[in-house]
Amino acid sequence: MARLIRMDQTGHTTLAEWTAQDDAAFELAGREFGEQQGLGYIGTVPDGPGKATHVRELPREADLVIMRRPIAGG
Amino acid sequence: METSEALPELASVPWRQPTDARWLRRWGRIWHAWTLLYSVPFVCAGVGMILLEPLAAPVAVAALAHAWIIPELYAFRGASVVRPKQPRAAAGEPVAQGLLGDLLGHEERELQRATGLVLEHGELGVWLLGEGGALLVAPTSRRVHCFCVSAVDRELPPSDRIAHLLLALRVDEEGFATVANHAFAGAPWRVARRLPRRMRPALEAARRAAG
């Protein structure tokens, strides 16, 4: 089952779960993804060792999508 | 699916030149020249005073101390980017540590648990990521670049803060280095001396990995 999680003060929170066959769950997860983007979070898909992808919409085939806050120089 | 290879945070620093290998070499040379510029005159003054007037030895010692202390202060500033920050969101740290561990290979996970720093191989060199910054050991490991960079949410658990940097680095390495503030470049031994003792093995591992 694929998961949409957000890194936050609790460590991380699971926002939604879906399977490729479950359209309703994926649609719900997509809405949650959009809401988090509206709050300033950035969607990232870890692609294995050394690689990750920035996504602007929820990828149906991803196993894990992580919402993170922006980074900035200190 | 709409994706992007560039780090979205680059939009907040449109005036910056991309931090690529050439930029890093140039800044490494500038830092090297700068270090010589402010330490050599103190050495010359100290030695000159002793040769001209041995009674001026205490002043000469002070001048030589300046030649040593000023580069050390810069190195301290550089090493400080990866020092642990104040404890926060401690309750969430075990969960955050689990997620960070899932993003790492076995060796990197063990190193992170022992030293608090994540080692990540990149095109620009070997990175060490801490809560509030990153060290980059350049290829041939003759120079370490120190970058100040962190997640904008200051209340995240430490491991989540590192995971933020790790994901951003993996999306776009040059973009990550461009967004980060370059704080120092210098010899690895100089930075290592100013790192907390627990973190020094991570820098040594990064040097070995960088060749």
Structural account:
The complex is a heterodimer of chains A (74) and B (211). Helices cover 22% and strands 43% of the residues of chain A. Chain A has 74 residues and is of the alpha+beta class. A 5-stranded mixed sheet of chain A has the order 2-1-5-3-4. In chain A, a hairpin with a 2-residue loop joins strand 1 and strand 2. Chain A starts with a strand and ends with a strand. In chain B, strands 2-3-4-5-6 form a 5-stranded antiparallel sheet, with helices on both faces. The two termini of chain B are 39 Å apart. The model of chain B has no long low-confidence stretch (mean pLDDT 94). Chain B has helices at 21-52, 57-79, 93-103, 106-115, 158-171, 173-179, 188-194, 200-210; strands spanning 3-4, 118-121, 126-129, 133-137, 144-151, 181-186. Chain B is of the alpha+beta class and 211 residues long. The chains are: A alpha+beta (74), B alpha+beta (211). The A-B interface holds A 5, 7-12, 42, 44, 46-47, 49-57, 59-60, 66, 68-74 and B 1-9, 12-13, 81, 89, 91-99, 103, 105, 120-122, 132-133, 147-153, 155-157, 159-160, 163-165, 167-168, 170-172, 176, 179-181. Strand 4 (52-55) of chain A pairs antiparallel with strand 1 (3-4) of chain B, so a sheet runs across the interface.
Summarize the SSE layout with pairings.
The complex is a heterodimer of chains A (74) and B (211).
Chain A: E1 2-8, E2 11-18, H1 23-38, E3 42-46, E4 52-55, E5 64-68, E6 71-73
Parallel strand pairs in A: 1-5
Antiparallel strand pairs in A: 1-2, 3-4, 3-5
Chain B: E1 3-4, H1 21-52, H2 57-79, H3 93-103, H4 106-115, E2 118-121, E3 126-129, E4 133-137, E5 144-151, H5 158-171, H6 173-179, E6 181-186, H7 188-194, H8 200-210
Antiparallel strand pairs in B: 2-3, 3-4, 4-5, 5-6
Uncertain regions spanning at least 5 consecutive residues of chain B: none
**Largest interface, C-beta closer than 8 angstroms, per-chain residues:** A-B, 30 and 53 residues
Helix count, DSSP H or I runs of 4 or more residues of chain B: 8
Would you count the extended β strands of chain B for me? 6
Shape of chain A: globular
Task: Work out the helicity level of chain A.
Answer: 10-25%
What profile does the largest beta sheet of chain A have?
A: 5 strands, mixed
Nearest-integer average pLDDT of chain B: 94
Q: Percentage of helical residues of chain B?
A: 40-55%
Which sequence of SSEs, written as H and E, runs from N to C of chain B?
A: EHHHHEEEEHHEHH
- Rg on CA atoms of chain B, Å: 20 Å
Q: What is the terminal separation of chain A in angstroms?
A: 37 Å
The radius of gyration over CA of chain A amounts to 12 Å
Proportion of beta-strand residues of chain B: 5-15%
The quaternary organization reads as heterodimer
Choose one word for the global shape of chain B: elongated
> Sheet bearing the most strands of chain B, described?
5 strands, antiparallel
Low-confidence stretches of chain A: none
